[in-house]
Each structure stands twice: as C-alpha cells, then as structure tokens.
Specification:
Strand content: 15-25%
CATH superfamily of the largest domain: PAS domain
Number of domains: 4
Number of helices: 16
CATH architecture of the largest domain: 2-Layer Sandwich
Largest sheet: 5 strands, antiparallel
Length: 561
C-alpha cells in the first residue's frame, strides 16, 4: 500500500482506511498507470521542443492529458478509462508526485469500495464540501450528500454490486450552502472480475443549474402571463393549432382548448376566410409580416365576432411556429360600419344641398341678367347722353355681380372659386365694352391663389369694375393716347390682401377740393372698401395707381360665410 508522503500533513495524502474499517488497502493499479502516462507525456512533450520530429509524441501526450481531463464530463468516459488503466497496470503502486497530481486535480475524486467506504479523497472534494480529507474517509463523505438526494444516490448505486452510473445531485457544504455536481461512477474490477472499488468523479455545475432554474422560472412566469392574458394567444404550425390560452377559447366561445387543437379552430372561422387565413399564416412562417386583417368567426352561441391578429415566428417545443395575439374588434368594426353609413348619408345630404345652392345662384344670375336687360332697354329710350352713360354703368355693375353667381354655380366645389379666371374675364369684358377708337389698351391681370367667400368676392369684384372702368374713361381719353396699359394685381401683403389697379395714362384727380369723391364711381370705391374693412390709397404720378388693402378673412369666418 501507499504510505502518506513525509512532507505532507495528516490530510495531505491519505491513502489508507481507518483502523475500524479493516486492513489497509492499497491504491489501485490504474492510478500508477495514469501517473506514468502523464509523466511520459510531459517528458515526450519536452523532448519535442528540442527535436521537431517529436511532434507526434507531443500529440500523444496532449491526447493523454485530454483524456484524463474528461473524467468528470461523461460517465461512459469514466468507466472506459478506469477499466483500461486497471487492466494495464496490474499491481503497480503510485509514487509521490503522481499522488500529488491527483490530489490537486480540478475534479473532485473519491475512491470507495462496494460497501461505500471511502479510502481516498482529493483537494477538490474539500473545496466543494468544506470537509477535510480525514472527515471524508470511511463513510464520512456521505454526510456531504444533500439529504434530499441521498435516496437518489442509493437507488443509482444499486446495492452490493453497483453498476456504473452518471447523475446530477446536490452536495451540502459545511457552511450550510449547497452545490450542484455531476456525479459519475466508474467501477474497478477485482481479481474475481467483479467490481471491487469505484472511482467517483464530481464536477461543479451550480452555475448551470442556477441558469436552468432561472430559465424554467422565466418560462413558467411567461406561460402564466400568457394563460391569464386578456388577449387571445394561439400557436400554430403548418396550419395546425398547438396551443390556445384561455383568452382565445373565450373569444371563440369554445368549451376548452382541446376543441381548437389541430384544425379544429377552422370550424369557427367563416368558410370564405379559411384559405386566406392559412395562406397568411404560411407567409408569416416564411418570414413575411402579417398585415392586420379582419377575421370573422361564428361562435357556437350564434354570435358573430370580428377578430384581428398580430403574428410572429416563435420557438415552441424546440421548433419554429407562428404565435398570434388575437383581440376582439367587433365593437370597433360595428362603429366603423355605422360611421361609414353616417358619412355616406352626410355626403348625400351635402351633395343635395350643394345642388340646391347652385340652383339658387343660377336663378340669382338669371334674375340679374333680366334686370341688366331691362336697364339696357330703358337706356335706349333716353335722349340725355349723360343718363345713357349712367344706365350703362349701372348695367355693368349688375353684370359683374351676375358673373360671380355664374362662376359659383358652375364650380365643382362651392368653397373654391377660380378667382383669377373670374377677374381675368371681368377685365377683358370691360376692355371690350370701354375701348376707345384709336387707342389700344393692354390689360394685365395677376392674381395669387386666394380663397374668398361670396361676401368678400362681391365687393372686391365691384371694386375692380369701378377702378378699371374709371381707368378706361379718364386715363385714356379720345385722342390723348394711341396706346396704354392697365395692370390689375391681387396678392397677400403683410398678413392682409392688397388689390392694386394702376395705369400709365394721363392721370386723374379723384377728390374735390373738400376731400369728397368727385364722382359716383369713386364714392362706390370708398363704400366697397369699407365693406372689406379696408383702406384706400391713390397716387397720380405717371398715371394713376389705386391700392386697397384689407385683412384676409380667417378660415372660420370664411366657412361660416
């Protein structure tokens, strides 16, 4: 047998049993062979450093060390290695250096006989359990096995002639903590060929166990959350339903989740939507995004529900599947349908009112044209030229207002009138009516896109009518000029609107000595400007330039108008 090394302590290298356990037992031969393999491998590795031809030996040494390091990773490896070393070594003993190497191995190692008595423990065992090596000998090592796992170990050991095994259990540290380990047993055959001793190899897997427990808790919490979620949740694969929570069964009115398993859920979906639903699920499984689409279902109680689903690829039982959150949008669908019906009725009512309003404008235009015609007929009976001119101006103003109403009822949208087109037509009509023989007057109209109500357009148009008429009458008298230009412009300026009418004619004096307008037309200009809350400005240098500025009506006032 192997005696403790003289340089060690009483716990440093214990290799014999307690006197109460019977005669001393020598370390099995496989320890010696293992030590020889390590020493030879290290020596060959050193030799290969001097001779490049020793690469093969270096590989053999590394392979041997790797085999020893794998003792704690798989039970099959434990058993094969132990048996092979036992057969090869015979009755050889372990020397001091090899014993120290085993004592310092990273894996905890115990040597026990068939009755469970320990004759050897290494340093890693003391690190795992806090036991001294002396305490572990005999049956003291069994005290480190967690009480809840001892029965598991006894069952795996299997009695007086236990088989090799591999399991995970807990050790109890002397400070009260616990450590999870992999527990591997490899038997060593005696002279009669039966197992006489066992090598127990233990590796610390506490971190892995904690991670596994945390993952299991997380999965349990997730399942509990999903199961009690107010939304429905289902998992499908290849069109077959694998899981449905309580929310899904409640939405569909199913008795339990079993009624929905496999293709059972399709019985609740309206027939026309079954194939489109299956196609969408297949597209999601292939990586496409599932666009929200209503799914109509018929419940056993006769209710019709409209559902929406948000789908994504999930892992279910280790394989990809499609997870779908389902929520009831029946009320929203009904509201949308009701809202659509209301909007349709409002559109129909609005179209009817617009038609009636256009008819009103049409009739107003016709009536104004009748009035204009009556004035023309009356003017033909007048002998006084001044009276005939006054009637003509009155007729022009009435036609200006009539043209506005015509524009309104012909417009596709009563709130948007083509102001530029209207003012352009108005100026051209005045140019034809007021043209003087021998004088060619060009007209320029610039209008920015500005939306105005009828209440604003009428005085604005009448302003243009008066100012352009005055320009033709006074800026270009007969024989004074052979050509000229009248420029009409409507634009936004400093938060308001400016109407400017200027000409390059001979100019005019618009006011009497007392500051009052010198004609009816100019009086009307002041009156129309007041209707717009505007101010009137005039300059008479190099022709005449009129400027009327008024605030832009707000959208609310325009809509009310």
């Amino acid at each position: 047998m192997v005696q403790p090394a003289s340089r060690g302590t009483s716990d440093a290298a214990v290799s014999r049993t307690d006197a109460r356990d019977g005669p001393s037992t020598r370390v099995p031969a496989w320890w010696f062979v293992a030590g020889v393999a390590v020493v030879v491998s290290v020596g060959l590795a050193a030799a290969s450093a001097r001779d490049h031809s020793g690469a093969l030996w270096l590989f053999a040494a590394a392979s041997t060390i790797g085999a020893l390091a794998s003792l704690g990773r798989a039970a099959a490896g434990h058993m094969r290695l132990a048996r092979a070393l036992d057969r090869a070594a015979g009755d050889a003993t372990i020397d001091g250096p090899l014993r120290d190497l085993v004592l310092q191995a990273p894996a905890a190692m115990l040597r026990v006989d068939a009755s469970g008595r320990c004759s050897f423990a290494n340093t890693a065992w003391t690190q795992l359990t806090g036991q001294s090596i002396a305490t572990a000998l005999g049956r003291g090592w069994a005290q480190a096995i967690h009480p809840d796992d001892r029965e598991t170990l006894v069952s795996a050991w299997g009695g007086s002639a236990p088989a090799d095994f591999y399991l995970e259990l807990r050790l109890r540290h002397v400070d009260g903590g616990q450590v999870w380990v992999t527990f591997g047993s490899a038997s060593v055959a005696g002279a009669d060929g039966k197992p006489s001793e066992y090598l127990l190899v233990l590796m610390d897997v506490t971190a892995r166990q904690r991670a596994t427990a945390a993952l299991q808790r997380s999965e349990a919490n997730f399942r509990a959350t999903i199961e009690h979620a107010p939304l429905g949740f289902v998992v499908l694969r290849a069109g077959r339903l694998l899981y449905a929570n309580a929310g899904a069964t409640a939405l569909l009115g199913a008795v339990d989740a079993a009624a929905l398993q496999d293709e059972g859920y399709l019985a609740f979906v309206e027939p026309a939507q079954r194939m489109p639903l299956l196609r969408r699920l297949d597209q999601v499984a292939r990586g496409a995004r599932m666009l929200p689409a209503p799914i109509c279902v018929a419940r056993p109680d006769g209710q019709r529900r409209v559902l929406h689903g948000n789908a994504a690829v999930v892992d279910f039982d280790g394989a990809p599947a499609v997870g779908v959150f389902v929520h009831d949008v029946t009320a929203r669908d009904l509201d949308e349908r009701a809202g659509a019906a209301i909007r349709e009725r409002l559109r129909a009512s609005l179209a009817e009112k617009e038609s009636l309003l256009k008819e009103v404008h049409h009739r107003v235009k016709n009536n104004l044209q009748v009035i204009a015609s009556l004035i023309s007929l009356q003017a033909e009976t007048l002998a006084d030229p001044a009276a005939r001119v006054a009637f003509a101006e009155m007729r022009s103003r009435i036609k200006t207002i009539a043209a506005i109403h015509e524009r309104i009822y012909r417009a596709p949208d009563l709130t948007r009138i083509d102001l530029k087109g209207y003012l352009g037509d108005l100026v051209r009509e005045l140019a034809r009516a007021m043209a003087q023989p021998g004088c060619r007057v060009a007209t320029i109209v610039e209008v920015e896109p500005i939306a105005l109500s009828l209440d604003t357009m009428v005085p604005l148009a009448l302003l243009v009518n008066e100012l352009v008429t005055n320009a033709f009458k006074h800026a270009f008298p007969a024989g004074a000029r052979d050509r000229g230009t009248i420029h009409v412009r409507l634009r936004r300026v400093d938060g308001g609107i400016e109407l400017s009418v200027r000409d390059d004619g001979v100019g005019m004096s618009p006011r009497a000595d007392d500051g009052r307008p010198s004609s009816l037309g100019l009086s009307l200009v002041d009156g129309f400007a007041q209707q717009l809350d505007g101010t009137v400005g005039m300059a008479g240098h190099d022709g005449t330039a009129w400027s009327i500025r008024f605030p832009e009506p707000s959208a609310a006032l325009e809509a009310a108008a």
